[in-house]
Design a protein that fits this description.
97 residues, alpha+beta, 4-stranded mixed β-sheet
């Protein structure tokens, strides 16, 4: 990694089915600081719809999205702080999870 590049954390969710890829991605994003990036690898075809939608709801930024056969890859950049708290999950939270 070159100086000045954002930190990238990798999350391999291969084999998990909906809704787990979205929920685990959400939890991982919550642990990042603004500007840091998360690379998510998964095989659930519904994640191609669900993860970009969750990113938009959370006001984070989808930097990359790729499909290579059954493997999907997303790079998400954590948003800058807003008036909403960092634990505001919108519709992507399970109570007591």
């Amino acid at each position: 990694m070159r100086a000045g590049e954002p930190i990238v954390t990798e999350l391999d969710l291969t084999g998990l089915k909906c809704p787990l890829p979205v929920l685990k991605t959400r939890k991982a994003l919550r642990g990042l600081r603004p500007g840091e990036r998360l690379r998510v690898i998964c095989t659930d075809p519904l994640a191609a719809i669900d993860i970009p939608h969750m990113v938009q709801e959370l006001r984070d930024r989808l930097v990359e999205q790729h499909a290579d056969g059954p493997k999907l890859s997303f790079v998400i950049e954590r948003h800058q702080a807003t008036e909403k708290g960092p634990d505001d999950a919108g519709p992507w939270t399970l109570k007591n999870a």
